[in-house]
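Quick one: structure for this chain?
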Amino acid sequence: MDFSKKQPALLYLDVNGFYFYESGTSSVVSMGFLPESVKDMDVINPTTLENQVKAFIEQGKITPCNISIILSPNLIFEKEILVTDVEKQKVEIAHYLDNLPFENVASSDTPLEKGVKVFAVNEELFTSLHTAFSKFGSAVENVILYSSLGNDAQLINNLTPENANLLIKKMDKLKQLSLLKQRPKTTPTPEQKPTEATAKKKQSPRIYVMAVFLLVLLGILGYMLLTLK
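Got it. Here's what it folds into:
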């Protein structure tokens, strides 16, 4: 597919949905996530999300385009690893990423005077949008952290068509920071070798809450049965 003939577009992704601008149009449009498609940064149902994107494209009469996604700070997990030894840094980074409540995590880092600052996001969130838009002729070319914008963050905070166009023009310089190209994977240390438990998808905390609630109900039911005898 020849992407060069498509118009560039900007998608500002937040927790509850996204804002979208396609070059050559006169307005910024938006789409809110249904709770059945995306909730708490988790993709609940990719098919529902795809149907939402389809309806969004059809209603907005959006043509196939090349999309740059900018990730809101509300989606980003950050941690400063204040360790100067490179190997220890790798261990600390791997431990931090492994404990985030997502199966697939995309990450980036920037050096600090006495360590490194790690940025991480649920990779499935933007890859699911990538898949959904690609089924209707568009492509996601870049995924940029809000923090990577520097002083240009003011443009995304006031996302008018004019400001969106300015950001699109800056994508050539920002694409080297794209998570689609980076996504560094830390090599597991001996004490972090994959196990059957860590290989399974990380469960959301609400699953454990539901399990505890179920056990309490079973306990109450058992007590009632005993008292009836």
